[in-house]
Amino acid sequence: MLTTTQRRPLERLLKANEDTIDADTTIVSCPFSLAIDVECSLHALTALSIPDVLRHLPYLKSLPPADALLTPLQFTPFELEAFRGTNIYGATRDRQESWSAEWNQCRTFIHIVNPDWAERYTWNKYLMASTYISTHTFPSTLLSRSPTLQTTSSSYPFMLPGVDILNHSRGQPVSWCTSYPEGSTEARNNSATISIISHTTMLCGEEVFNNYGLKANDELILGYGFSLPRNPDDKLTLQLSGSSNYNAKGLWNEVRRLVAETPEEIGYEDDLEAAQPLLEMVWGDEKDATIRPAVRLMLKHFRQH
After folding, report:
1. SS3 sequence, 57-102?
2. In this structure, what are the phi and psi dihedrals at residue 210, rounded to the nearest 5 degrees?
3. Torsion on CA atoms 239, 240, 245, 246, rounded to nearest 10
4. What is the pTM of this model?
5. Which one of 25, 156, 188, 222 is at 20 to 30 Å from 278 when CA atoms are compared?
6. Which residue, among 227, 224, 172, has the nearest Cα to 196 in the 3D structure?
7. Which stretches of 139-266 are DSSP H helices?
């Protein structure tokens, strides 16, 4: 038996309850008919008065409230500033610009239909919906007879109610499986189901995990709003401001020479010591009280390279 537990505003846990869950057990399933895709969303927009359209309402109400979302677009300006000089900062600014343009375009179309709706279609509402899509969707390639998380040029995001409740654990052995009715030959059949199978034994009280794939902390922070301590998949990208003729290699060699006890014999420990002041220049002080604890933790994990 499985139970859900609320640990933090944004985080729900799925735990083994009462019984041990054996390896190679299906831990969660969802019928294709409940998948929220483009077709389902368009149907809901054009038939809001039909009760069947609202069958996803309990699931939508279970999603985190706006004040619990914590991707970089929900950071305060000061919190985002703490990431200046990293790829997270630039990618967040780019996403903000892109989503803002999409929001304004949507408002323009909505205003043609109903000006009052357009007025109530605020940036905060659009940001919340877009964040749900970025944090809770899967690629449509999972809905094939050979499910895969690899996206293609024709794949699109869709939501699987209940399946998205599982938190991420790097290296967790899981597999996806689709089950079609006997005799079905359709590429997609709404009577089919998609399931996650866990290949490890879980004892009573242990959390049940999914595996989002090999993702560095910058991708986890940007896409989901969380990070992992000492993530082995991490990478670090630093952007040094200045002209195109700025000699970063020359700066680095000069710093290494200054910190080395013997400039003629610079070793690995000297490199680490030289890197520390450069990182401090880029990141500043993570202990600043204006940074929320959850964001401070992401910043700390991001620095653990």
Report:
1. HHHHHHCCCHHHCCCHHHCCHHHHHCCCCEHHHHHHHHHHHHHHHH
2. -105, 180
3. -150
4. 0.76
5. 222
6. 172
7. 217-223, 248-259
